[in-house]
Amino acid sequence: MKSFFLLLLCMPIIAFSQGGYLPGYIIMNNGDSLHGLVKHINALPYQVLVREVKFRDEQTGKKSEFTPEQVKEFRTEEDTTRFIPLAVMGDTSMDFVAVMAEGYLNYYQLQETTGPGRSNHYEIFQKKNDSLQFWYTAGDIFFGFKKKITQYLSDDPALCAKIMNGTYKEKQILDIVKEYNSFHAGVQ
Predict the structure, then answer these.
(1) Model pTM above 0.85
(2) How far is it, in rounded angstroms, from Cα 89 to Cα 56?
(3) What CATH topology corresponds to 20-77?
(4) Domain locations in the chain as residue ranges
(5) No. of H helices and E strands in the chain?
(6) How far apart are CA 179 and CA 74, in angstroms?
(7) Residue 38 CB contacts under 8 Å (≥ 6 apart), including other chains
């Protein structure tokens, strides 16, 4: 049991000694896969908007940086969230966004850090064959949550009723998206 606690204490030290690099992979646009150490949004010292992903080959130690235009997706073993490139908010440049859920309704998150311990993020939604919808959140505060989400998901009245009566709260957005996708299961 003591060795388990010692391992837990050492994990941050190990991650720090790797300079924020974590075991993972990158899939390039041409289909090639790079397996090694990846440094991304969850890297030390604190989170920032991800405009590139860094890679270090474990065998050679060689470091590389890749832009969203070069990468199809990446992930680390520690954080199983996939990151994909996406042009956000009408911007022509792309950022890496976290894929939270996929289906009839895709749900992504884009996080930006305004300083140590302070971050904002955008909830990004896209229904099948529709344009992206962006909603800003400050920390955990989702401004106008009930009104925005029920208008957007109005084709599922039962789900909207659950949101309006408080069955679902704003912190349960992933559960809302999953239920909405179940409602539309099989829709092409």
Answers:
(1) no
(2) 31
(3) SH3 type barrels. (2.30.30)
(4) 20-77
(5) 4, 11
(6) 26
(7) 21, 22, 23, 24, 25, 26, 53, 54, 55, 74, 75, 76
Distances (CA, A) of 26 to 13, 55, 72, 147: 24, 8, 8, 38
- CA distances for 141 relative to 45, 98, 107, angstroms: 24, 19, 17
- Predicted confidence band at 23 (pLDDT cuts at 50, 70, 90)? very high
CB-CB contact of 37 with 24 (8 Å): yes
Contacts of 93 (CB under 8 A, 6+ apart): 51, 68, 87
3-state helix, strand, coil in the chain (%, to 5): 25, 35, 40
In 3D space, the residue among 97, 1, 91 whose CA is nearest the CA of residue 51 turns out to be 97
Could you tell me if 88 and 132 are in contact, meaning their C-beta atoms sit under 8 angstroms apart?
yes
Q: Give the model confidence (pLDDT) of 123-149 as tens digits.
A: 888 898 888 887 766 655 667 788 889
Place of tokens 């070069």: 70
Specify whether the backbone of 182 is left (phi greater than 0), alpha (psi in -120 to 50) or beta.
Answer: alpha
- Torsion 16-61-110-179 (CA) sign: negative
